[in-house]
Amino acid sequence: MKTLQVFRGTLAASAVLVLATLARADAPTDQYALFNLNSDIIQDQRTGLSWQRYPTATAVSFASAANVCQALSLDTLTTGWRVPSYKELLTLVDEAPHVEYEGAALVQKWIDGDAFPGAPVTLNGYWTSSAYPLTPGYAYSVNFNTGLAEAHSIGNAQYVRCVH
């Protein structure tokens, strides 16, 4: 009987810990360095990466994503932009979504709306530089409408958000 009581106590404590973890919302307040609202770049203080705040206006193929980033020149970072890896892009996924207008509809967004305003999420995901190991000709993208990573044919069109 004593073992059952200890198990119940441990289970209850675990449930409280899980609920406390799930209750957190948005990116931590100290994740991004202070930025000017007009800035095209935002610095992630946790990873040390600099991100393009505004993604490409149109979706592009996997090969074109690399070309877009290589040609990118923003503010003080005029060279060295690239397509982020799978793990890097997942660092932008918020812990809790927010709702925002996209076009004429309210949509759920799993990306910080202050750091990355107006990020389109409903039509396409965002390319990563990481190949999908189970299927040749596929690569990972991150869908900020669901907060999940997906595998897509490299010929498909996805958005790109470059990293430095």
Write the layout of secondary structure elements.
Blueprint: H1 2-22, E1 41-43, E2 50-52, H2 62-71, H3 86-90, E3 93-102, E4 105-111, E5 126-131, E6 138-143, E7 148-153
Antiparallel strand pairs: 1-2, 3-4, 5-6, 6-7
Percent range for helical residues?
Answer: 10-25%
Tell me the strand order in the biggest sheet: 5-6-7
The total of helices stands at 3
Question: DSSP strand (E) fraction?
Answer: 25-35%
Amino- and carboxy-terminal Cα gap: 58 Å
Radius of gyration: 19 Å
Mean pLDDT: 83
Q: Any idea what the shape is?
A: globular
Structural class: alpha+beta
Helix-strand pattern? HEEHHEEEEE
Let me know the largest β-sheet: 3 strands, antiparallel
- Count of strand segments: 7
Can you tell me the residue ranges where pLDDT is under 50 for at least 5 consecutive residues? Answer: 1-25
Explain what this protein looks like in three dimensions:
- The protein is globular and about 40 Å long.
- The chain has three helices and seven strands, in the order αββααβββββ.
- With 164 residues, it is an alpha+beta fold.
- A three-stranded antiparallel beta sheet has the order 5-6-7. The chain has a two-stranded antiparallel sheet with strand order 1-2. The chain has a two-stranded antiparallel ribbon with strand order 3-4.
- A hairpin with a 2-residue loop joins strand 3 and strand 4.
- The longest helix is centred in the N-terminal third of the chain and has 21 residues.
